[in-house]
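Field: COMPLEX_INPUT
Field: COMPONENT_COUNT = two
Field: RESIDUE_TOTAL = 228
Field: MODE = joint
Values follow.
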Amino acid sequence: MPAFTSPPHPPYVAVIFSSIRTPQEGDGYETMAAELERLAAMQEGYLGFESARNEDGFGIAISYWRDEESAKTWKNVSEHMGAQKRGQEKWYASYHVHIANVTRAYQFARDDVS
Amino acid sequence: MPAFTSPPHPPYVAVIFSSIRTPQEGDGYETMAAELERLAAMQEGYLGFESARNEDGFGIAISYWRDEESAKTWKNVSEHMGAQKRGQEKWYASYHVHIANVTRAYQFARDDVS
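Field: COMPLEX_OUTPUT
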């Protein structure tokens, strides 16, 4: 998975998912996360996905969408998979979700990075 | 630093900073990051800060602000410190910034987490 998304110019929608993982090995989380990302990428309005997680279990995942409608459709799809329900029961100690309209964006890249 | 922010109900502003760190030890990054966070917390309109970074160097940091004005003021403060300029030169291979208006938010916490 590439580190950065490449959304077009704003406006677009960001769904911010901050979470604390429960410390369980072999609970199927990685498989679920990869499948969710694969399904998201197939969905109308998908613009990209970024995620990072600290060793202590705190992580942030952001999916970018063309508009609120596609972001909501994705929420329904992921719920239909049962990911959110199972996640509440098994994978996460807690999570916060913020749905946001991106109004401005800019970026920087070093010239000398090979 | 607490893992989660506790912003009030939307609307509020999220500044999403996704970055790839350059692999340099002892470059003062941690000191700068801690100082920036300390200064942010003192600023009018500050609502919270969250961050996570993968071992491979990709990370996401999000600061939450009461409104666009306080988010912009913070940008000026951090630039005045020179953090952004030095960051471009030293700490980051690349970064993306998204400024977004949070319109909805919800959260979950397990009851059985001790």
